[in-house]
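EI: anyone free to look at a 214-residue chain?
SC: sure, send it
EI:
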Amino acid sequence: MGVPWGLGVLQGVDLECIRGQRRLFSKLSFTVQAGEALWVSGPNGSGKTSLLRILCTLLAPESGEVRWRGRPVRELGEAYRAGLTYIGHAVAVKDDLSSLENLRFALAQDGCRVAEAALIDTLARFGLAGREELPARVLSQGQRRRVSLARLPFCADRALWILDEPLTALDVQAVELMHALITAHLVRGGVVVLTSHQPIDLKDVSVQHLRMVD
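SC: here you go
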């Protein structure tokens, strides 16, 4: 398939991050091509989540810059943010809403309106059949994680996916589904940056491994 977003690349150029009195990393540079994943690993506290938040523009680097298609993302502003999907490490579901309501709400925040049948089918695909109407507070941690991740099939038109520990608390079947979704996005020419303590099994696509040190 062709690359719908052209030859876009994500670059980190001499990035430095300081939190409190501690320098998490400095002079960190990388380039991720269209159709390529960047797997970020390392011990807790090494700056993995901070790096992802910098890539999302939720956190400003102490120095250096992030570039998308050769342009600094601070110049692109909302045009850059509108083209990315970020799913953080914390499970962003509301306890009093059902799985279906949480998914509908998350997609509405992305400006995406989807027929209810498609939402139900997607929740079933994520192993949540029969739990669509249950409030999130009664779900297991893994099930709550799946509700959060169920946004991804509807984000195919967003070139950049940034995923913080997407495999946490998932069973083997759900991990295989995530690998399939990420692989399909890369085959379309998308870019994926993800953190994971678990091995990443993405076949027939390019994966860079960036290991952070404490």
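EI: Strands lie at 10-19, 22-32, 36-41, 63-68, 71-72, 84-87, 160-164, 191-195, 206-211.
SC: 👍
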